[in-house]
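Blinded run. Sample ID left blank on purpose so nobody reads anything into the name before looking at the predicted structure. Input follows.
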Amino acid sequence: MDPELVEATTALALEEKGKLVKSLRRIDMLLFTLCAFVGLDTLGLVASNGPQGFVWLILLAVVFVLPYALLMAEVGSTFTEEGGPYEWVKLAFGRFQGGLAAVLYWVTNPFWVGGSLAFIATEAWSSNIHAIGAGTAGDYAFKLIFIWVSIGVAIAALKRGKWIPNAGAIIRVIVLGFFSITAIIYGAKHGFHGFGFSDMSPTLSVFLALVPLLLFNYVGFELQNGAAEEMQDPTKDVPKSVIQSGALGVTMYAVPILCILLVLPLDKVTGIAGFLDAVAATFSVYGGAAHILTQITAIGFILTLLTSGAVWMIGGDRILAVASYDGAFFPFFGRFNARLGTPVRANVLSGLVASVFMIVAVAAFDSGADSKFYIVLTIAISTTLMSYLWIFPAAWRLRKTHGHVHRPYSVPGGKGGMALVAAITTFWVALGTWVGLFPGTLESLLNVSYDFQDTWGTGRATYEWLTLGTLGVVFVIAVIGYLVGGKVRREQVVVPIEG
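Blinded prediction complete.
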């Protein structure tokens, strides 16, 4: 058999794949990807950078999102094995590299859910619904409920659990649409704040500050391929769902941010809480109904955070489980539940990691306010960007090494077009990774003002020790997981490549 048309898998992989059920239709994939792609937790941070934030958001949509979508449309519709990104990197560079990419891709999610989303959701509830004291029993309870509801959605059989991310995507449309309409009404009544063209002139300082955030906003096209063998027709549906969700997602970011900038002075847009602050300000046009409408919107905001976490758990945990049943990580986590068809062990691992991280943050790091916790959280949730340093080059290499595999969709321009989009996307995630690991270094090189102590609340030595130390722990865990998987790898089976 042509070696380009087969792959080496394991006996455990074949056993576990028998538990998968095809349940994702095209509309499910569109809503799933939209739920992964659009996160409301960062809208305020982008808007707080003023018109420049909006300009960079649009520019990156053109120079990153478009080539990224084209790349994932090809590789996602051609190589349709469960665990997508792991399988692509494995086929291109081998099991060890695939396992490393899978761990980097996965580990972001429990830290993000337990260390960021749970905290933002708690603050949104406390500020708009009912006050919760930091460090109280209610604080712990709310965050733990948030985490484990997200995990519960991931554990549920996909044919049922998919409705939660689907609903999350619809809630995003409703919340952002209603807010945008309200902002226009507010502007018509009170006047549009507006901004001049000079305010939109992009600067390197804002760009370098926003790069990791904007790139983190704009990833998720490949996440649905974590469940590729649970799709009804991935060869046809992946390209359409990727392109459609990309266009809708960029619009859902751009319109509300533009509305915020048009109707509110910049000093009223306050970082993470900025979106709900903007909601409270603009909803004043509804008079006596403003308070209840703000509360309803806050609940919708919290539900979008919950479904963001859930959808990334659904895809990310599957990718880790596939790496595990293929012998590239601890095989224990490669088991799928026979009744549910979901990787329950990997799901529970994510929940435990998220819970421990949250408890440590509240108990030992001033409820997450300590700068050292923020640094560790920043690097932990940046590992997803690092994983694309394997995923994007893998898509290009597969065009070379597996060129005979039928491609339902191909990046325009032949091999040159594929090389170009792979190079562009890899450049952006490399830049975002560097800025996350070594902030201030490019600013120094480009003679851009940057106050490290003021930005991070600590010195560079402490920052690098924390970031590189955290990253080192992740790499060590990945290596140990690979070594433990040796017995499973030895039970090798050769099978045709799906596609």
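Unblinding after everyone has recorded impressions. Residues 316 and 374 are 23 Å apart (CA to CA).
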